[in-house]
Specification:
Strand order of the largest sheet: 2-3-1-9-8-10
Helix content: 40-55%
CATH superfamily of the largest domain: HUPs
Shape: globular
Oligomer: single chain
Number of domains: 3
Structural class: alpha/beta
CATH architecture of the largest domain: 3-Layer(aba) Sandwich
Number of strands: 19
Radius of gyration: 25 Å
Length: 638
């Protein structure tokens, strides 16, 4: 695995030394094991290699051969299959991932990308055709930022060096306004743009071809092309296929010669990963090091309701069940997110919304490194793949297919197992299916976006379209099925984890985001996900015998960062005053209605008047304000 960067002048001009310096210098904050670079007159490529897998020490990157210049960031999951295809089975345990990917591309071209599994992003320059090709893996584990300025194409695993090289950097109004307008934790409305105008990134499953004349883009993974639902199997056959696939998906990412860690909650997704990983490591006499977010000391948590606010007890039971899990509990050392947010912003480079979650994820990866782990397992995409279960979608689908007897039985079964009123649920299902979509008076919620600026930029139309699509998909699984391949979510998750990985020196891998697992899930009939009073069936039913029994809460879910209001309350007076001062300082913002944001703070003095999301909204709004000011200051100093 590597960080990559570089520049290619398509007219043969020399790459400036200062540009080379800026490109490489940005990676000084990253935990790189070895730096390599090649520099011809009009070509410069760099690679910061991280030793996540045994073969990484033998990587020779960047490389050049017969007019091809290549640099890559890659850890591949189906190495044996690729080696067999190339006829080099004897090299399966020794060939570096970068070299293996290079050989595949040399023989089969970009047409083979859909067959390559893992986390990768690369830049391929063919000097003979004067063509650059940039691509990333199908599920967005890794990415490349790129920009074309005149005849020069610049690229990097980090955004910052491309921003510094640009002489006339401008903020991207669409990105900034969409970020604020969406009054929830989603940050983006498309997959390629960034906060900086004219700097783009590879979308998941995208291959980009750049010549002097044009830029062509292609999405090479089309999972719904010639789609047919898999209805030819019994439930036992589904179970056997899923268990085999799930075990392979987890084991394929576990190639680290060092220790292995996991972000472990008390819930199903990460525990399902641990259910394979812990026994696999135990066979080797090794531990699985777990990291779990817990409330700060003094917080009076409540686990009696719908949510489990402190998952430590459940994690301890999981550790005892498997016998080789060593647990660490993270409370951010009792600090508020506002105290730590500036350093996290340096890691992620751009404004972000999941404030406290990002903080404890980065802290967990940092602590894992100091325990000797270079691999961090997660299950962050599980709700969209292996533990997907939306009762509204299921019940609405039965209603629309006129399967009324089955609908009645399922409502009764789920009402009994989950403790809700079946009669009330039936009325809701009927109402949902007889009511059409109605646009909201304002799609901006309680966000602090400048509404006129948002309207002028088309935010209202984009959000209304997204809202209408979401309204439709929950009424029909055939529409909802497409959201299981959620490129926006894949981009947002992968981008954050990649930055954390570069800085901490720990590779994040998520088997719930495995391309094979997602493809298996999208082909299932809806009832395989939930039926007979049981939701999240792929884990609750198919993996039941290898999971600890305490995780099968039928109506409870873990709630990370449950202590946010309490935590912020420990220093609320100081924080509130600082926020008011910042809104005053940046009152000329093009994007934030600072007067309205300030009024929200002056009208409510006590911390009890704020929900957790109210506080999160202020923090990410202020992050964006500070980012806007910093970019504008940099521009004025150039």
């Amino acid at each position: 695995m590597s960080a990559i960067w570089g520049a290619v002048n398509l007219t043969g001009g020399e790459i400036a030394k200062e540009e080379i310096r800026l490109l490489k210098a940005a990676f000084a904050k990253c935990r790189i094991d070895r730096y390599e670079e090649i520099c011809a007159q009009h070509i410069y490529m760099g690679c910061g290699i991280q030793y996540f897998v045994p073969q990484a020490k033998e990587e020779q990157l960047p490389c050049t051969e017969s007019g091809i210049y290549f640099t890559v960031d890659a850890v591949l999951d189906n190495r044996r299959e690729l080696c067999e295809r190339l006829g080099i089975q004897e090299e399966v345990d020794t060939i570096p991932d970068g070299e293996l990917l290079f050989r595949m591309l040399r023989r089969y071209g970009m047409e083979c990308l859909n067959d390559i599994l893992g986390a990768y992003a690369f830049v391929w320059y063919n000097q003979d055709t004067n063509t650059i090709e940039i691509a990333a893996d199908a599920v967005g584990n890794r990415l490349v930022y790129y920009t074309k300025r005149g005849d020069v194409v610049y690229f990097s695993s980090l955004l910052e060096p491309l921003r510094l090289i640009a002489p006339d950097v401008e903020l991207n109004d669409r990105w900034m306004l969409d970020f604020l307008s969406m009054d929830y934790l989603s940050m983006i409305s498309e997959t390629e743009e960034n906060p900086i105008q004219d700097i783009y990134r590879t979308a998941p499953a995208q291959c980009i071809t750049i010549t002097q004349e044009e830029i062509r883009k292609q999405i090479y993974w089309q999972p719904f092309a010639d789609f047919r639902e898999n209805r030819q199997q019994t439930d036992e056959q589904y179970r056997e296929e899923f268990r085999k696939l799930w075990s392979q998906a987890v084991r394929d990412v576990m190639r680290s010669p060092q220790e292995t860690a996991i972000m472990l909650s008390g819930g199903l997704d990460s525990t399902a990963v641990a259910a394979i990983a812990a026994p696999y490591l135990k066979q080797q006499g090794k531990k699985l090091y777990s990291f779990t977010s817990v409330p700060m000391k003094g917080y009076d948590y409540d686990n009696s309701g719908r949510y489990i606010e402190n998952e430590q007890e459940d994690v301890e039971k999981t550790a005892k069940f498997y016998g080789n899990i060593e647990s660490t509990y993270l409370d951010l050392n009792g600090k508020t997110p506002w105290e730590l947010i500036e350093e996290e912003a340096k890691v992620l480079e751009i404004p972000f919304k999941s404030i406290q979650n990002c903080l404890w994820l980065t802290q967990g990866m940092e602590q894992a490194y100091h325990k000797g782990a270079r691999l961090m397992l997660t299950g962050s995409y599980g709700n969209t793949s292996v533990s997907f279960s939306d009762l509204d979608v299921y019940m609405n689908t039965l209603f629309r297919k006129h399967r009324y007897i089955r609908l009645l039985k399922e409502v009764q079964a789920f009402a009994k197992s989950m403790g809700f009123s079946g009669r009330y649920a039936l009325r809701g299902i009927i109402k949902d299916n007889l009511t059409g979509y109605r646009a909201q008076p304002s799609p901006y919620g309680r966000s602090f976006v400048r509404k006129k600026a948002a309207d002028d930029n088309g935010c209202r139309q984009r959000l209304e379209q997204m809202n209408e699509e979401n309204f439709k998909v929950v009424r029909d699984f055939e529409k909802y099925r497409h959201l299981l391949v959620h490129f926006l979510a894949l981009r947002q998750i992968g981008e954050s984890y990649m930055k954390m990985s570069l800085v901490t020196g720990v590779l994040e891998r998520d088997p719930t985001r495995d391309k094979r697992v997602i493809e298996f899930c999208i082909h299932l009939p809806v009832e395989q996900f939930c039926k007979n009073g049981t939701d999240r069936r792929l884990i609750k039913v198919y993996l039941k015998d290898i999971m600890p029994p305490h995780v099968f809460h039928f109506h409870k879910r873990g709630k990370q960062s449950a202590d946010l209001v309490y935590r912020m309350g420990t220093d609320w007076k100081k924080i509130r005053e600082e926020w008011i001062q910042l809104y005053d300082k940046y009152e000329s913002s093009r994007y934030v209605d600072t007067k309205r944001a300030r009024k929200d703070l002056t009208d409510k003095e006590n911390i009890e008047a704020y929900s957790a999301f109210d506080l999160t909204r202020h923090m990410y709004t202020l992050l964006l304000l500070q980012y806007e000011a910093r970019i504008n200051l940099t521009k004025s100093n150039k």
